[in-house]
Fold this sequence. Notes:
Radius of gyration of chain B: 20 Å
CATH topology of the largest domain in chain B: Rossmann fold
Number of strands of chain B: 11
Helix content of chain A: 40-55%
CATH superfamily of the largest domain in chain B: Response regulator
Number of domains of chain B: 2
CATH topology of the largest domain in chain A: Beta-Lactamase
Distance between the termini of chain A: 27 Å
Strand order of the largest sheet of chain B: 2-1-3-4-5
CATH class of the largest domain in chain A: Alpha Beta
Order of helices and strands of chain A: HHEEEEEEHHHHEHEEHEEHEE
Number of domains of chain A: 3
Oligomer: heterodimer
CATH class of the largest domain in chain B: Alpha Beta
Order of helices and strands of chain B: EHEHEHEHEHEEEEHHHEE
Shape of chain B: elongated
Largest sheet of chain A: 6 strands, mixed
Shape of chain A: rod-shaped
CATH architecture of the largest domain in chain A: 2-Layer Sandwich
Amino acid sequence: MKPYNQKPLSLAARVMFFVGASVGLSLLLIGILVLNAVERHFAEQDAEEVAVINKAVIDVLRNNNDSNLQLSKALFGAVSGHHGVYYQVRNQQDKVVFESAGANLSIVKDSLRHVTEISAGNLQVWHADDKTFRGVLTHNAIAGHNYLVITAIDIGFHLQFLHKFRLTLWLIMVLTWAVTLLAAWYGVHKAHAPIRRLSNKMGDIQADRLDMRLAPSFVPSELQDLVSSFNHMIGRLEDSFNQLSHFSADIAHELRTPLTNLITQTQVGLGKSRTLEEYRELLYSNLEEQERLAKMINGMLWLAKSDHGLIKLEQTPLDLSDEVRELFGFFEALAEDKKIALTKEGHAHLILGDKAMLRRAISNLLSNAIRFTKSGESVLVRLDNPSDHEVSLTVENPGNAIPAEHLPNLFDRFYRVDPSRARQSDGAGLGLAIVRSIIEAHSGRVEVTSKSDKTAFIIYLPTTIKAIQ
Amino acid sequence: MRLLLVEDELKTGDYLQKGLSEAGFQVNLVRNGLDGHHLAMTEAFDLIVLDVMLPDVDGWRILQSLREAECQTPVLFLTARDTVDDRVKGLELGADDYLVKPFAFAELLARIRTLLRRGSPSTFSELLKVADLTLDLPKHRVTRAGKKINLSHKEFCLLELLARRQGEVLPRSLIASQVWDMNFDSDTNVIDVAIRRLRAKVDDDFEPKLIHTVRGMGYKLDVEPVDEAL
Lengths: 469, 230
């Protein structure tokens, strides 16, 4: 574990880092290339000049048949008009025939390579007397004589120019780099403006304004995914929030009715003196309401626990056929009393499941079915294996169809198809919600279909059930 | 039968004491964990009813030190938090049963009686007799005043349960659990229907009536009518 959580680098810093590095590297490369090119250009220029001088000197040597004195004169005039040009001519006996003033070229005589052709590549550079020279040494056989010619030019002027040029170039490069970085920072800052706007908008969304959505046209294309995800999230939040507030309202309503009964009948009861029998009646009546409340609270607690995944399944191998038979035994008296037949058909594979919970779920469906079945008709439980890893249990009863618009909500807490007949039948209106949460805890699903003459609740359960925890 | 009741909530404690006393138990009520712990360790009780959430020493600690002291008095704990962990914890620590608030008083009574009966040797008699009603357990045969009564298997189980616990009020949930193995709160009136049908066979043609409805609590089988004196 790190001792502390480092904050990730800011987006601007990341962009600046990458832009800075890549632009800096490119500029450095360009600078080096340009300097190289300029230097090579100068070297070529120098080579040309050296070649011209060399040629002029050789021409003089070639055309000269006279005495040494005349030769010196001729050599001296060979390159008139050139500035900063030096040459030395030696004869076969290594005697200096001519030497330009201003540079001692003898010192490099031994260190220079002998070349036959002058090019930028084989010129050599040396320093002497605070000057920098570029030059070459050539052997020339002219009219039976061998001459050694050292030709050099002072390149101090070029170097000075190069130095200035280099300074200027690097200054421009650094400035360019700085400007690029600034531009990148500004660009990032600007590019974040939609995000800041978005963030402000999101900040405006409060619990009571969950219907607000962000307009996708409002942001650049890169952020549209974010906006639509955010909108979806808010949508889901809105749904849950609405459900929750409806649920609270429903609870309040459901609790209010028995509480009103309790308060009213107790106040009326205490309003005047009554007989023992009347008091007893009052207490019984209170007890019934209180039990209804306790049942409702227990049901709600159970559902709350299952919402939080706190329901622990005690899984055992179950044959649903056996469970249905047991449940038929339980409901037998009630069904016979109402003259309703309970029939079972089909078989299902063994499943793993919590016996008590599944019995409770099926029992809720059965008691519902019996409640809505008319005397003389029958409730059918059908077991089936829709696939190798799924079993189904259908509880079907004849009766009037449930209007289609109610079907999706039938498993919601406190949902009632007919609000007016609210509390007659089932205690709390939680029965089907409990069915659903039990089945979902078993990784199954429950569906309902209702046609003109019959209603069927179908439970699907996987044959191997993983607990939700 | 001496019961120790440890319950810090004033009203709950008072009413439980009253109800249990009226059910024939001798009840010591203490309102905090320290006193409860002290009494449980020093005096002999037949059963302890323990609230888990107490202000000072909680119920778990009391239970734990009781069991560590090798005191095997049955303990039934009351809890408001119905979490699996709580139940498991209680049972692991050596509690014998538990009830989640809110509970029905009849349920508590029935559980207490079950726990108290647990230790005592059960009667192995093959015949159960209440007034002129006789149950022949091995043969699953019922006669009343010498006349044979035909009962279905479940009806026989129901009657047997009522007869075995003669005089006790059995809540519907307990009946559903014992006779049909349905261990959940059912919203249906299955039990009432079953009792009515049983009554039609066992009581309708005979006097005195044996199966009584205790309104708001459950059913019992007894020779005495229900609180007719009141």
